[in-house]
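Checklist before submission:
- one chain only
- standard amino acids only
- sequence pasted in full

Submission:
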Amino acid sequence: MKAVNQKKYIWEQFYSLLTNEEWLFSKIPINTICEQSGIHRSTFYRLFHDKYNLLEFGISILWGQFTEINIHDRIHQPFQTADAFYKFSEARKLISHHVNDEPFNLFLTEYLSNLFEIEMEHYFEKMPSTSFEPSFVSKYILSNINFLDNWNKSLTKKLTPKELDSLYHKLILKDLFQSNT
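Returned file contents:
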């Protein structure tokens, strides 16, 4: 079996563990992943550094379709874009199962935030309309998206993705990109 196919197979087996009610990411040992995949530990370590590296590999597969969505849409309508993606994604099942698994959530949030931040920086480097440094704008936007998301989770009556995007435009994008939003 070629390394890429073997990696995908191991990810699929790991995903089945991750979505099994008996397991949380933080509690799954490498031995269990190896047993589930029918491989030796040496094979696992030849392909992955650790289970976080395997999770990173899987995240890139699960969120691949999301990163294919136009970056402009993801910046200008982050809540509606994410909502549309998660409705039909296997990522939703993974996230909902690990809502209380702090190591999983920290890793996922950091990984996806870093990925989005890099994409935004490249996007803003090509835009002449802002006087702000692309890295500043990227961090500013990302932190405000996260803030609005966390704030919305704390509400008794949650805002819809469309309402969140509207608020996001009024509070965040309006002043940054008056001519481009």
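Reviewer check: The two ends are 49 Å apart (CA to CA).
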